[in-house]
Fold this sequence. Notes:
Layout: E1 9-10, E2 19-29, E3 35-45, E4 56-59, E5 64-70, E6 73-74, E7 81-83, E8 86-89, E9 98-107, E10 117-121, E11 124-128, E12 148-157, E13 163-166, E14 169-176, E15 179-190, E16 197-200, E17 203-210, E18 216-223, H1 232-249, E19 257-263, E20 270-271, E21 276-280, H2 293-308, E22 317-318, H3 324-342, H4 345-364, E23 376-377, H5 386-403, H6 405-419, E24 423-424, H7 426-437, H8 446-449, E25 455-463, E26 468-476, E27 493-496, E28 498-500, E29 516-517, E30 522-525, E31 529-535, E32 542-544, E33 554-556, H9 561-570, H10 574-594, H11 603-614, H12 620-627, H13 632-636, H14 644-661, H15 663-672, H16 683-700, H17 705-717, H18 721-732, H19 739-750, H20 754-765, H21 772-779, H22 790-801, H23 804-807, H24 813-828, H25 830-836, H26 838-841, H27 848-862, H28 868-877
Parallel strand pairs: 2-12, 18-19, 19-21, 22-24, 25-33
Antiparallel strand pairs: 1-23, 2-3, 3-9, 4-8, 5-6, 5-9, 7-8, 10-11, 11-16, 12-15, 13-16, 14-15, 17-18, 20-21, 25-26, 26-31, 27-30, 28-32, 29-30
Helix pairs in contact: 1-2, 2-3, 3-4, 3-5, 4-5, 5-6, 6-7, 9-10, 9-11, 10-12, 10-14, 12-16, 15-16, 16-18, 17-18, 18-20, 19-20, 20-22, 24-25, 24-27, 25-28, 27-28
Amino acid sequence: xxxxxxxxxxxxxxxxxxxxxxxxxxxxxxxxxxxxxxxxxxxxxxxxxxxxxxxxxxxxxxxxxxxxxxxxxxxxxxxxxxxxxxxxxxxxxxxxxxxxxxxxxxxxxxxxxxxxxxxxxxxxxxxxxxxxxxxxxxxxxxxxxxxxxxxxxxxxxxxxxxxxxxxxxxxxxxxxxxxxxxxxxxxxxxxxxxxxxxxxxxxxxxxxxxxxxxxxxxxxxxxxxxxxxxxxxxxxxxxxxxxxxxxxxxxxxxxxxxxxxxxxxxxxxxxxxxxxxxxxxxxxxxxxxxxxxxxxxxxxxxxxxxxxxxxxxxxxxxxxxxxxxxxxxxxxxxxxxxxxxxxxxxxxxxxxxxxxxxxxxxxxxxxxxxxxxxxxxxxxxxxxxxxxxxxxxxxxxxxxxxxxxxxxxxxxxxxxxxxxxxxxxxxxxxxxxxxxxxxxxxxxxxxxxxxxxxxxxxxxxxxxxxxxxxxxxxxxxxxxxxxxxxxxxxxxxxxxxxxxxxxxxxxxxxxxxxxxxxxxxxxxxxxxxxxxxxxxxxxxxxxxxxxxxxxxxxxxxxxxxxxxxxxxxxxxxxxxxxxxxxxxxxxxxxxxxxxxxxxxxxxxxxxxxxxxxxxxxxxxxxxxxxxxxxxxxxxxxxxxxxxxxxxxxxxxxxxxxxxxxxxxxxxxxxxxxxxxxxxxxxxxxxxxxxxxxxxxxxxxxxxxxxxxxxxxxxxxxxxxxxxxxxxxxxxxxxxxxxxxxxxxxxxxxxxxxxxxxxxxxxxxxxxxxxxxxxxxxxxxxxxxxxxxxxxxxxxxxxxxxxxxxxxxxxxxxxxxxxxxxxxxxxxxxxxxxxxxxxxxxxxxxxxxxxxxxxxxxxxxxxxxxxxxxxxxxxxxxx
Length: 878
C-alpha cells in the first residue's frame, strides 16, 4: 500500500490494445501452501493499432514470477521491466505479428483477504475478477476489450476439492491418485474479468431448462452441504429469468450448462462470470425459516440480474470501464422490469425509486458526484456506484419511455445483432436506440455526461373562458465537482402526466404541441423553460406529474395538502398515489423541522392514513408503502445544511402521533392480516405480511405493555423469518425491559445460520437510542463477527453508519468509530473499506460543529499508509 495519489485515467486517452489474445490456456495446481498458475497466451498484432513498434504490457499484482517465455525465447530480467502493476516487454518487433507467451507464477489465495483474484472462503477456492482482480491471478493484459477464448485446467486434492469448476463446458477429467484434474473450455470470447474458478467440497442442486428452440440446458447450483436445502427458490428464479429473457428480449441461453456457486465471503452481491456465476450467499439462499420476504425478493432480483448479464455484459461487453453503465445500468433496468412483471409493478417502482432517492441522490450531492459515464477515474473499484447502476437504469427507462415498448424491443434486437461478441461503448448503444426507434437522442445523451440530480419547477395557469390549462416547466441542475451549474445544458426529460377533474377522473389530454406524445401522454421537456397548453379543459384540475417517476429528477410544484390527499385517493397512477403520500408527509415533517423538531401534527395526514388503511380496493402492499414515512436519508437530501436531530425528532414525532391517533385502526389492520396459511413468497402473502408488520412497528413505537406484548407474541409464534424478524426489530428498537433477553434468545436459536446472524447485527446497529454505539462496539468482539467477512461488516459497521441520529452523535464518537474501522479494513480489504468510508466524505453537508468532527477523522485517516481505493475517496472529500 502506498500514499502516492493514484493516477487519473481519462476516457479521451483510450487506445486500442496493440496485441490481442486470441486464445488463453490456464493451468492451476492447487496446494495448501502455494498455488501454481501457468498461462499460454496466443497473441496477434491488432490491425486497428497504428503504433509502429508497440510494447507489450501485462498486468500483475502480488505475483511471484517463476518464468516468462515468448515462443522459444526464455526471457530474463533484462528483457522486461516491472513497475507498479505493469510488466513491460519493450522489444516486440523481433517476435513478429504472431507469438505465444508462456508464463508461470505462484500465488497464495489463502492469504488473500482482499477477496479479489483467487482467494479462499472457508475451505473453498473462489475467484472475483471484476474489475481488475484477474491481475492477482497471473500476468495478463487485463482490460475489458481484450477478449479471448479460455481453456482452463485445474488440479487439486480429490478429498478436499471434489468439485472444481470454471467457465463453459467440461471437456475432460483425469484421476491422478489422491489428486484429480478437470479441464473446462468456454467457446465464447470473454475478457479476463469474466473468468471464474471454484474448487471445494460442495453439494449441488440440479434442474434443467428447455429453451425456446428446444435445447435442454443443465442447471446447477453449488453450495456447502449445510445450505443445500436453501437453494431451490434460487433455481426457480433462474428458470423464470431464462423464460422472461426469451419472452421479452428474445434472448436464448447459449451454453449447455449454467452454474451458480454460493460463497460466504464476497465483496459484492454476485458476479456474472460466463456460465459460472459466483454469488454472495445472501443473494442465493432462501427458505421460509431463515429468509425474510425481502431476501426472497432480492434473491429473485439478483439471480435475474446476473443471468441477464449473459447478453448485456457478456455476449456484448464494455470497451473500457468508462462504459460500465452500458452493462450495469441496462441490466439493472432489465432486472427491475423482470421483478415488475412477476410481482406488483407499482410496488416494485416504489421500491426502486426509494432506493434511488436514499442512495443515489446523496451521491449526486456529495464530493464524488459523477455522471453515469464519467470522463475520468483514479481507482476503478470506486466506480461501482449507485449512479452508474441505479441512475444508469433510470436513463435506460427514459429511453424505453420515449421509444415505447415495441420500438425499444426493435432497438435492442438491433443492438445485439450489431454488437454480439464485441466490446462496445454507450454511444453505440444509444445509436442502436436511435436507429431502431427512429428517434433523435442527441440532446438525450447529456444524461451520460452531466452529473447531479436535475430540479424541475412546475407552475400552472388556467384560462376558464378559453378552456385551456397550461403547464410551465423550468429545469436547472446543481453544480458538481467537475462542472458549474451555469455550464450545464438542459436535459431531455420525459414527463408522463395526467390531469384529474374534480371527481378524480383523468381527462382526455388534447394539445397540438409537437413535444407531446399522445400515445403514452409523455411530454418531451427539452428547454431550460418550456410550456405546454391543453385545450378543452374546464373546472377544477389537479395535475399528476411525472407518473411512474418518468425521470430521475426533483420536482417543485406547490401542491396544497388537500390536493395531495385528493391524489392519494384518486390518482389512476399507483406510483403517484404513493408519491402524494410521501409529499404530504414531507411537507408536514419539514414544517416541524423548521420549528426545531417540535409542533402539532396536521390532522389531515392522520385522516389520509386512516383513509388508506380503510380502503379495501388498494393493494395491501401499496397500503404498507404509503404508510411508511420518508426515511431520514432521503429527508436529508432536501436540505443544503442537514440538521440531523431536527429531522429525526420531527419524523419520530409524526410516527408517534400516527400510532396514537390511529391505534385502533392499526390494531384492526394488524389483526385482519394475521394468517395461519403455510408460508409462500407470493405477492398476496407478502402484501399481507408487509402491511401487518408496518402496523406492528407503529404500535411498538408506543412502548406500551399492550403493544409490546403483540411483538412478543409474534416473535414467539412466528412460523417464518419475515414475521419473526419484524417482531425482533420492534422489540430491539423499543424500551421493553426484556429487550436484551429476546436478542439473546434469537442469537442462541439462529447462531448457526450466518445470514440470520447478519440480520441480528442489523437489528441492533440501526436502533436509534443512545445505547447503540456502545452496543455496536461490544458486538465487534462478538464470536459471530469477523471483520474479514464483508456481510458482517455491512451488517454491523455499515448499518450503524446509516443510522442517521446515532452515527451523527454530537460528541463525534460515531465518526471516530467508523474511522477506526476504515483504517483497520483498508489493510485487509480496500474495496470494502472504500464503501464504508462514504458517510464521512459528505462532511460538508452538515452543521459547522459536525463538519469539524468529520473532517478531523478524514484527516486522521489520510495520515495512514492507504490503499488507492481509500486514498482517492479521502482526497476527493478533503
